Amino acid sequence: MDDATSGLSADRSVIVMKFGGTSVATPEGRASIAARVTAALESGAAPVVVVSAMGRAGAPYATDTLLSLVGDLPSEPAERDWLMATGEIVSAVVCAHELRAAGIEARALTGAEAGIVTDDTHGSASIIEIHPGPLQAALAAGLVPVVAGFQGVAASGRLTTLGRGGSDTTACALGVALQADAVEIYTDVDGVLSADPRSCEGTSVLETIRADELFQMSRHGARVVHTPAAELALASGLAVIVRNTYSDHPGTRVADISAYRPDRVATSVTCSSGVARVRVALPAPEGTRAHMAAQTRIYRAMADAGVSLDMFTPVGETLVFSVPEDALDRACDVLGSLGLTYQVQAGLAKVTLIGAGMHGVPGVLARVAECLADASVTILQIADSHTTISVVVSAEESRTAVQALHDGFELEA
């Protein structure tokens, strides 16, 4: 092994490199991973590799394929976590072998071996702390750690998983714990796009976005990075770069909000499908105080039932809110238990315009309404924040809405 890939010194800057399932799944992808790691070593960095499960549904070790082994049979949540985590463990072993074949000293580690400690919520655990000692020892010994993403260990000692896309969160959490210079997230596209190209024409790769924009994109339906990973980047100021495993495109740099002011009103448009809208009649007696008390009871009962409300709007004697369609039955059960009358409209979507540059700029909401009116899209509900404007529309009109906003705010530039 040459000098570039051996004897890592303790003062080398750490770079966390996360590779998605499409990068790990093929010999060509794994060769690209080895080339990326070699280049990082030759630049003087100390890389830590994080991997997802190989491929997508149908591939032998993809998460959905593993889950299909038990199908809809009753299973213990902890056992489902064991099954799902298998895919990342296989990827870590195979990638470590690939790196060693390329002359790079590497060691595969499970999430637990990498010091990742979570709560005990099986299937969607949150990382509560990281003990970086094992990774620091591996780096000091001149090794490239290859960490199985998407998993950790609870204080009870039980294996846990972090939810779909959780390998991104593994990478960002390790980046924070190791005080990494950067976290590089490698995928099969050139970077973060201005919209989903499957539902919008003329999309472009964003050269730079702010961490708060990335977070809003993730939470509003864009399949960019795992939402907790984007939240970590926002909270920590961690440098994140989203790149293509297979090309030399520079990708998208995620900038700290204190260091970058966008030069345009909007940067992207996202769409979340499977939305339902609920209109609740607030009970008599009339009056602001009585209606507020009724709203409070609804909010508490929904929270106790694990139903997350979105875009809730009190209007006189009614309360309007949206919920994911897969939570609609629970929401209706709650309203029924409270003796409330309600109406439901399902088959909807939420389309969101995102941009840190819209804060304090007059006329953005009007422009959104004009773009959608010109495209004959009916707005059912609307909500805004400092960096987002969201509209609820019918699912049939959602693609038209995305395209209209993308074109109207010239995001193809």
SSE blueprint:
Blueprint: E1 14-19, H1 21-24, H2 27-42, E2 46-51, H3 63-68, H4 77-101, E3 106-109, E4 116-118, E5 127-130, H5 133-140, E6 144-148, E7 151-154, E8 159-161, H6 166-177, E9 182-187, E10 208-210, H7 211-219, H8 227-236, E11 240-244, E12 252-255, E13 268-281, H9 288-304, E14 310-315, E15 318-324, H10 328-337, E16 341-354, H11 364-374, E17 381-384, E18 388-394, H12 398-408
Parallel strand pairs: 1-2, 1-9, 2-6, 3-6, 4-7, 9-11, 10-12
Antiparallel strand pairs: 4-5, 7-8, 11-12, 13-15, 13-16, 14-15, 16-18, 17-18
Helix pairs in contact: 6-8, 7-8, 11-12
Descriptive overview:
The structure is a single chain. The longest helix has 25 residues, at 77-101. Strand 11 (240-244) and strand 12 form a beta hairpin. The chain is built from 12 helices and 18 strands. It has 413 residues and is α/β, with parallel strands linked by helices. It has an 8-stranded mixed beta sheet, sandwiched between helices. A 6-stranded antiparallel beta sheet has the order 14-15-13-16-18-17. It has a 4-stranded mixed beta sheet with strand order 5-4-7-8. Mean pLDDT is 92; it is low at 1-9. It is globular and about 75 Å long. The protein folds into 2 domains: 12-260, Acetylglutamate kinase-like (Carbamate kinase), CATH 3.40.1160; 269-408, VC0802-like (2-Layer Sandwich).
